[in-house]
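Page 47, continued from p. 46.
Same chain as before, 137 aa.
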Amino acid sequence: MENLSNKSYKTTAQGLGIAGLILGILTLLISFIPCLGVTALIFGLFAIVVSSIGLGISIRHQQSKLFAIVALVLAVIGSLVAGLQYFVLTKLAKQYPFNLQEEINYSRDTDTIFSNSDEQDTYLYDQDTLGDDKEVK
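Result:
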């Protein structure tokens, strides 16, 4: 009976380790895709949970811990890369609207400068032509 129970824990631990390994590899691969890598945090969270459960079962029943440890390492590395990408993207997103607003204000200022000079030239030209018309009369 003990042998059957031990075999059951071995297959459960290995199954959770392999599932965690697949999720860990998926997390690591997705984390390097720009702008999509943030979604790797979801897979990383599942991989960490599954791998931790598999590692706990392996330790408690003296089974092989290889798959669970490798899965846990891959999931943590992938999650760290995804978290770093999320941090950088949010930092850039917070700065971008201010830079954009400065550019809009700058373009409005330059448009105003150019449009005022054109209006002044037109006004001066109108005064010159009015002055010429008065002299002709």
